[in-house]
Specification:
The structure is a homotrimer. The first copy, chain A, is an alpha+beta fold. Chain A has a single domain, classed as RutC-like (60s Ribosomal Protein L30, Chain: A, 2-Layer Sandwich), CATH 3.30.1330.40. Chain A has four helices and seven strands, in the order αβββαβααβββ. The first copy, chain A, has helices at residues 2-17, 65-80, 99-104, 106-113; strands at 27-29, 46-49, 52-60, 89-96, 119-124, 127-128, 135-142. In chain A, a hairpin with a 2-residue loop joins strand 2 and strand 3 (52-60). The first copy, chain A, is elongated. The interface between A and B is large, with 36 and 35 residues.
């Protein structure tokens, strides 16, 4: 009887150690189509968990007006998929192979924020996922905790 | 009458599709002055939404004692603007043009954490926003959920 | 009496200004041993605050099957320390000195996600903390808010 209790206690301790947390609810959004992710590269464009939306880097092949407009229209679409706008963006990380060029066209980027800017960090790197990409911007957006 | 109902239903469905989320409450802090952001570069130094504070990359032009002290005093100020300290930092991302130099002066950085370190990632990149910058450090800090 | 009230009011205003927030509860996990952080480099491998876990960059010295398996087994261990799995990963940031090589071995990385991918951004940088490191992957993972 005593042994039985010890065995049961050990079993519970063991189960507790390896207990998995309940499954996290994630909402995903991906470019067009019905798939909510790119199973070839292995990522999803935007993922919501709790009140936070993580948006994967969105790219431009050329750093000019059109390229930057495309990136931000893409980000806008990712946000809109969750009913959000640039007003919900709290953090922006900008990776580019040419910061100087990006500075020249920053006015295009700034338009999308309509005077309400997030925290942001820019770094110049040597290349991006696509060899021809010159700019990649990722965002963190937040839901208001009230409506959740 | 039936048509009217269909039209109203469609309208509601349409409105629902495009419904925006309630406006997110954001608290911003920026270096000196009354402006809470840099409308020229288009960013804010620190932004709180919910329990999280995102602190933009803070830079040093030279990787030496003074440069690193300046960076961390700046970060300390950003945190203090929200009543926080380095104890609230959960993540640090360090971007530098010279990791080897930064390692030499890591003892200066470490002092600010007073033995309580965050998760951290260091990468060496080719340049930062300011052409002469050698070091840029961004943080994520967290409020205790109790006091919110 | 009046003066006394003014002094007290000022004192309160002053105290309020410098009031610190309540101490944040953080759970840390670090590789082996009893120390919950690396006090030499000044970081912790994984840190939980609230519902979020920040996992520091985990490295490979060679970009091949074994190297990538090691990185993801390390990340798996960091997650498991909190009772989490790759299903809880919401964001992945991949830094490498050779994106082309990493693409070749992406199939190894993808296995660990078992078809449920996070938001992700890949950038090629010039070097990592360890001079010989070729790959570093950091994660953000999330607890389901129910069980907290």
């Amino acid at each position: 009887m005593k042994h039985c209790l010890i065995v049961i206690s050990c079993l519970f301790a063991f189960l507790n150690l390896y207990a998995q947390q309940p499954i996290l609810k994630k909402d995903k959004w991906h470019w067009g189509g019905t798939e909510k992710q790119d199973t070839s590269a292995g990522y999803t464009q935007a993922l919501r968990a709790g009140n936070t939306v993580y948006i994967s880097g969105t790219v431009a092949l050329t750093i000019n007006e059109d390229g930057i407009i495309n990136v931000y229209k893409g980000l806008e679409k990712s946000l809109a998929a969750f009913g959000l706008t640039f007003k919900n963006v709290v953090k922006e990380n900008l990776y580019t192979t040419d910061i100087e060029a990006m500075k020249t066209f920053n006015y295009v980027r700034k338009r999308f924020y309509k005077g309400d800017f997030p925290a942001a960090t820019w770094v110049q790197i040597t290349r991006l996922y696509m060899p021809e990409a010159k700019l990649e911007i990722e965002l963190i957006a937040q839901f208001s905790s009230k409506e959740n």
